[in-house]
Structures are given as structure tokens and as C-alpha cells.
Amino acid sequence: MINGIVIIHKEPDYTSHDVVAKMRGICGQKKVGHTGTLDPMATGVLPVCLGSATKVCDMLADREKEYVAELLLGVETDTQDITGKRLAERNPEVSAEMVREAILSFQGEYSQIPPMYSALKVNGKKLYELARAGKEVERRPRAVYIRELEILECSLPVVRFRVICSKGTYIRTLCADIGEKLGCGGTMQSLRRTAVGAFRLEDAYTLEELQQLKDGGRLREAILPVDSVFGSCPVLHVRREYLRLLDNGNAILPEQTAEKELYAPDRWVRMYGADESFCGIYAYEADRKRYRPVKMFLEKE
């Protein structure tokens, strides 16, 4: 079994589930998972986890994300992007400066209402299923955080911008909210995800490129190790005589590591065996003076 992470450059018209299905065929294994849905029309970075790395899917989904989007002003659709049914069209009587002020006003924390065409569940039903049935339900606003907003090009009625945002941010909804603030409406014309955490588009592979690597017996060249997700965490190595504790997912005492370091309570550390094999994420418990396992990644072929 292959254990690791591959950064997919998702192309248009593929769903995230389509990508997972393709990767199962390329890798020849069932244990494959994606780390956050991209709409079929969207392109860009989609980290896919293989084998033991599927345990980090939820962790990657929580990471900050970067997008480049195109906003079409003067158009409103039911899906908040150009794939949906047009609900209203008007001439956007706005200036470039008005657009700039409106867009940049969303930087920081703001309250966003999730779109009906989304995979969020209400009373056990996905919102998009209700929307397709012609039903609309009340959605609670959620706090999202926009760390950076940069206008890349303004050729009215189209505005291209870059955004770095927290998990759970809908760029379609951001586009609609900008249009509403300008009084002319707006919809998302295109979307490309350029980064998920430290994983960037320039390091991504298309499905075709991965198939070519597979055919040439070089697929593992594209696979990142599981611990690449935790690059900011300090490293500890368990001494050889205590490896059995590590293999069983037990707590580890500081003196049972080569470094004997004490880190701040609850600070995550990467725990390795004496042979440099990554085994898991641990956190220090100050009251018990030990490192407790947070999540284990014992790789078994």
C-alpha cells in the first residue's frame, strides 16, 4: 500500500469524488481520500491522501487556503456562480474605486451565510439536495476570516482577485456578497485554488501526469511523506529500547527520547523511531510529565 500525500491539480468538470476514484485506479488501492471539496467548475490544488495519510484528511481540510477568483458584476444566479440559473441582470454602474473599496472591506472576519448549493447538512439533508428539490431553508451565518485580499485585475464588469481565507469560506458567496454591497449583484465566473496550507499549485500534478508516472514505474516520485503536513512541529526520536511503546501507540516519557526535550503543554511534536520512520503526532502533558499520542501513523505495507 502507498502511504503519503499527492497534490492534485484538479481540472474543470471533475468532482472531488471523481478525483478520488481516478486515484484509486492509478494507485491500485481503495484507501484514498480527499481533503476538502472543490466545485466541479473550480480548478487547482486538491491534496489527496493515500493509505495511512487518510488520517490527516480532516487536518488538511482545516488549513488556510488561497484562491484566485473572477467576479462578474451585474449578474445574480441561484448557485452564486455562472453554472447556475440567472436570477437577475443589471448594468453595474460602479467605478473601479468603488469596487476596490467594496472588495477590501471584506478583509478580516465577516459573517457569511452558506449557500444553498453546498454540501452542508441541515436535519440530515445536504443543502444542495434541498436546493435541487426547489426548497430553501434558513442557514445560520458563520464567522469566516479573510486574511488577505488583493485585486489582480479590474476590467469591469469582471474583477479578478486573490484571497487567502480560513476553512469554511465560500468564495462564491464572497462574490455574491461583494455584488450585493455594490448594489448590482455579482456571481463567480471562475475559481482556482492556488494553495492549501503549504501545498502550492506549482507542486501539483494533473491526473494525466500521474498516470504517465504510474506507467513509467515512477509514481512514488509524486508522493509526499505523511509528516510533510507537520513541518512546523518539533521532532523527537524514541530511543531504540523503547520502540515497543511507540509501536503500540503508548505514551512516551521525555527521558525515553534521544532529545529529552520538554515542550509547552499541548504543543504538537513529531515522534520518530530510531530509524527515522515517522510514527505519530504527540502532545506534552505537563501534569503527567509525558507525551501522549494525538494521532498515530504507523505505516504498514
From TrEMBL:
It comes from the Bacteria. One of its GO terms (biological process) is mRNA pseudouridine synthesis. The keyword Isomerase applies. One of its GO terms (molecular function) is RNA binding. The active site is at D39 (nucleophile). Its EC number is 5.4.99.25. Keywords: Isomerase, tRNA processing. Residues 25-171 form the Pseudouridine synthase II N-terminal domain. It catalyses: uridine(55) in tRNA = pseudouridine(55) in tRNA. Residues 172-229 form the tRNA pseudouridylate synthase B C-terminal domain. Pfam families: TruB_C_2 (PF16198), TruB_N (PF01509). The keyword Phosphoprotein does not apply. HAMAP family: TruB_bact. Belongs to the pseudouridine synthase TruB family. Type 1 subfamily. Responsible for synthesis of pseudouridine from uracil-55 in the psi GC loop of transfer RNAs. This is tRNA pseudouridine synthase B. It comes from Acetatifactor muris.
